[in-house]
Amino acid sequence: MSSLWGAKGKTMALFEDLTLGAATSTVLLGVGVVVAAPLLLPVVGAVVWPVVRLAVQSGILASDATAALVTTVGTELDKTVADVRTQTTSTPLPDSASGLMHLEGTAA
What we know:
Number of helices: 3
Helix content: over 70%
Number of strands: 0
Radius of gyration: 37 Å
Number of domains: 1
Strand content: under 5%
Distance between the termini: 90 Å
Largest sheet: none
């Protein structure tokens, strides 16, 4: 394992020796990126564009599905609340609970 790390370190040291130091190698790497960018960006764009489009399309579909789910849940909740209110107003209160509805100072 140590020989593997040693070989990697020697390769990096050789690269820095050939490019006259770390600063020069960074500059050369930057120049290489600037030179290669016009050639690589159209290729990368052609590959990335369908992936981005699919991600946006999936997000829109998920948003629409969530909106439909929230609407359905809201409608069902409204129906349930209306049913409960109908049952509660039509059912008379028991005698023990009727005293709770009176204000202070009034007789039950």
